[in-house]
Amino acid sequence: xxxxxxxxxxxxxxxxQLVMRQPETPVRALAGDWVPRLTGVVEAARAQGAxxxxxxxxxxxxxxxxxxxxxxxxxxxxxxxxxxxxxxxIREAGAPKTAESPLSIAQDPELLSDFILESGEHLANIETQxxxxxxxxxxxxxxxxxxxxxxxxxxxxxxxxxxxxQKVAHETETVLDRARNGELTLTPPAIDAILLSDDYLxxxxxHLEAPAPSGPPIGGEEALLERIRxxxxxxxxxxxxxxxxxxxxxxxxxxxxxxxPETSEPTAGAEPAEARRGSAAAVKVDTAKLDLxxxxxxxxxxxxxxxxxxxxxxxxxxxxxxxxxxxLTRITQELQKTAMAMRLVPVxxxxxxxxxxxxxxxxxxxxxxxxxxxxxxxELDRTxxxxxxxxxxxxxxxxxDHGLETPRERRAAGKKETGRVTLTAQHRAGQVHIEIADxxxxxxxxxxxxxxxxxxxxxxxxxxxxxxxxxxxxxxxxSTAAMVTNVSGRGVGMDVVRRHIDKLRGRIEIRSTPxxxxxxxxxxxxxxxxxDGLVVKVGAERYIVPLxxxxxxxxxxxxxxxxxxxxxxxxxxxxALLPVLRLYKRFHVTPATTDPRxxxxxxxxxxxxxxxxxxxxxxxKQEVVIKSLGETFKNVAGIAGGxxxxxxxxGLILDLDRLFKExxxxxx
Length: 668
Known about the structure:
The chain is 46% helix and 18% strand. By secondary structure, it is of the alpha+beta class.
């Protein structure tokens, strides 16, 4: 005989089946599975004195077996309502819904991992749809999507005995159900409560992901539940009395998007229901296995290159062998491209997470802000997308705090009261460019320069371009804010941005027009695993210069290279004097020649400006797999890593930014 607690688990399972039902599957198709199980519920409930529960289960059986009831969405809603009523009846009859430990399912880590992943996808979708509901409370499709998300989480949490999660999801689902039935209007207080529920469930997921979770992860559950229940008990006319209430944690900045669980999973998306319907064409793979596959594909490329460039191969004059080698090369290249593509994820979910940040900060600052995105389908390496969350958050905060004016200031300037922040991604020249633009007041060159002189970062801004002045905002501790707030003003945000982008081998460019706004462009590589580079020779050594940092190459003439004050060397390139770094001096290598006229100048472009590398010979362009040099050599200045070349030798990948900084600081 089933016990009351087991009946509760059964109801949760039936609820999940109802939500997961394919749209083309009629509701009555569930009868074959449901009726026998509900019959067992009736018998068990009666045997244990739970008469109301038995009657509720009987009503569900009658609904499923009534042939005169037409098939419609209304039947599905009646079943959902009946299941909720049955669940309440079982709980009231004595089911110990809160007595068990919320971590009692931990002995099945695989099941718990699936729950965390599925719930993370639902919560990502919920947040996106709730923000749409805030703009249009009558959007029935968005409302149904949010309801289904909470309903599914509630059912899965009940199955896993995560009663805290189930309770919050259930109460939030009740609010949404009333909104679907027209009994409640989703006013700003309701939207705030739903988003707080979303935050609460996210924190639970992070707690469950911890290696050894113990005890309740957070407090405030009762206050949250009271707030949610208050929405249902409040009369309709009182729901609009306070259109702009303060959130409970309004004084605190929104939690960093990087902590959201969906950022760690490449399959997370904004529409998990559609993803499930196409599950036959997609599978979820552990990221560790994926990384290993990509690494092995890179090793295979290196091995193929070693075989193809073996000096003994040309001596074997076999046409068949040459055809086989060509076929091997083609397959290896395709394998590498496919493996690298598996690491690529769209930037759309990252952009959508910024929408929540914009919403919270705009209310905190008292500004009206609209966020627009473009290029959501552009794909980047998963690691890059994860690392971008933090710098993107700082830049969006900076745009709202410093860039956009208040509604009064915008009216005075003849602008619309609602400011605009635009996030755009696009492919350009083998890179991905991500732009963060606003239509605010723009950067104040004179104010930035004055602050830089005050902090002794520069002696004077005279002769400096706008770009050079604007780049001063990335200096550690630099801020033009008149006062320090809980969001900005300490001068650490933009410094963090540059460190992250440098780490990703990217660059930042700033464009700004006073009174019209600013645009920050992040130029990023598609992947961190491979790099296009120029292989150069210095003496007996080979080095790889990243191609994205190379502006041009030339053979210097007699009057190209000059010595200034018998110390520093400068090269005259297209009318500009650029500092020269002889690579053999930097790495203490014996060169083939010291005469610049018999060498090659490579003009490199880095964040701080341009300079020239003097090398012996240019071997050619090559796509190489980046290899770490390990802990011993990771801090060697001017070296970003290594790569195995076609002849089996190791080539060092140069870090032009570090080389330039050492050169301008007086090193050689």
